Amino acid sequence: MGTRVARSRIRTNPNSHKSLLQWRLSLNLSQREAARVFGFSQGKYSRLERGVGVVVRDEARKMAALTGVPPEVLAGVA
Question: Which of 8, 23, 39, 77 could form a disulfide with 72 if both were Cys (CB 3.0 to 4.6 A apart)?
């Protein structure tokens, strides 16, 4: 069966993170667990973490609120 991510571990993150990788590692999450937080497949999350994936503006805002990673970084603009 799949791994469940404890909701208490995933909240709006007050820390500023420079990347999704930094955010994920700070919470000791697997890529699969991190992907589930956002409702993505592990593959899509992996592409985003490597900077080759694409998210729409609304997804970038939601992810930024949870991770502290600037939306420009998530959207691939910065």
Answer: 77
DSSP 11: S
Answer whether CATH 3.40.47.10 is correct for domain 16-74. Answer: no
Sequence length of the chain is 78
Residue 65, φ and ψ in degrees, nearest 5: -65, -35
Q: What is the pLDDT of residues 9-46, one digit of tens each?
A: 444 444 567 889 999 999 999 999 999 999 999 999 99
Long-range contacts, stretch 9-13, CB < 8 angstroms, 24+ apart? 10/37, 10/66, 11/66, 12/65, 12/66, 13/66, 13/67, 13/68
